[in-house]
Amino acid sequence: MINDKLNARTMLVSLKIGQPPKTKADKQAAVQLVVDNAADVQRAEDAFAVRQVLLSKDLFSDCTAAVSAARNYHRDNTLPWLDIGARIITAEHYLAYRQTMQAFESDYMRAADAFVGAYPFVREDAERRLGKAFSAHDFPSVEEIERRFYFEVKASSLGDAEDFRADLPDDILDEIRAEITSDTNAALRDATAHAFQRMHDAIAHMNERLSAFKIDATTGKRSGVFRDSLVENIAELAAVLPALNVARDPELDRMARAMMDKLTKHDGDTLRDSEVARQETLDATAELLGEMANFRAVA
């Protein structure tokens, strides 16, 4: 595993997105259900779980879509690192990542501003919709709602064992530095394994979908139809994997190139219409999965 100047060519990024709660537990309603149904339980929550919808999904849909898009991009363009919440990314890929996340932030905050502007009407609608279950306490002021919306991307550097300093005996310092180095190398292996697993899963999915696609020779009816995204997702993953190669693993780079060269030669329409193109791509997926099984332990 290559670990030269890891903290110079990689970094950690974390994503936090804040939004007001859309539901809350309704204990009184749960208790009423116990009474109405003569449930034989000591606690209402042992029989019923009732959640009150404070903010309807329709009113919050733009914010939800922006959050989903940002989190998906963050997950797909980074790799897990230790168990600290932050994820690792190459410095080379960070500028593109940062620019895209800034666009997601703009989308989210624009949707949040629109929601805050409509919030007084949302509160009125909730009072009508919830009836006697409505509680003004569950609906804070406009200013408080505005504060609950935030979008934060934070970058930080990786620690380096040689930079660790403390007023401790030399033998203890050496032991701690060795642990830091060992943990870093283990996290590097895990991050690389995660990238290979993503590659394996994408190729296996394409193999499965192409194998399931059939055309009835008599009626021409198609079954097991796949979407254009089958090829598009492979292309997107193959394009981003080299930027996620934090360990500079030559096999990861080679396999990413092979994915792009062999699995994206034909678009979805061609794969559906041409048995030759379909079989060629299916054979390529089997070949790549075979190669991965030979040198990398994947599920």
Q: Which helices and strands appear, and what pairs or packs with what?
A:
Blueprint: H1 6-9, E1 10-18, E2 23-25, H2 27-37, E3 51-53, H3 61-76, E4 79-80, E5 87-90, H4 91-130, H5 142-148, E6 150-156, H6 170-212, E7 214-215, E8 222-223, H7 229-240, H8 250-263, H9 268-273, H10 275-295
Task: Describe what this molecule looks like in 3D.
Helix 3 packs antiparallel against helix 4 (91-130), helix 6 (170-212) packs antiparallel against helix 7 and helix 7 runs antiparallel to helix 8 (250-263). This protein has helices spanning 6-9, 27-37, 61-76, 91-130, 142-148, 170-212, 229-240, 250-263, 268-273, 275-295; strands at residues 10-18, 23-25, 51-53, 79-80, 87-90, 150-156, 214-215, 222-223. It has ten helices and eight strands. Strand 7 (214-215) and strand 8 form a beta hairpin. It has 299 residues and is an alpha+beta fold. The radius of gyration is 26 Å and the shape is flat.
Write out key terms for the chains shown.
299 residues, alpha+beta, 2 domains, 58% helix
Brief overview, please?
The chain has 299 residues and is of the alpha+beta class. The chain is built from ten helices and eight strands.
Strand order of the largest sheet: 4-5-1-6
Element order: H for helix, E for strand = HEEHEHEEHHEHEEHHHH
- Specify the structural class: alpha+beta
Per the CATH scheme, the topology name of the largest domain is Four Helix Bundle (Hemerythrin (Met), subunit A)
The outline comes out as flat
Number of separate domains: 2
Helix content: 55-70%
Number of strands: 8
Low confidence ranges: 48-53
Task: Report the top-level CATH class of the largest domain.
Answer: Mainly Alpha
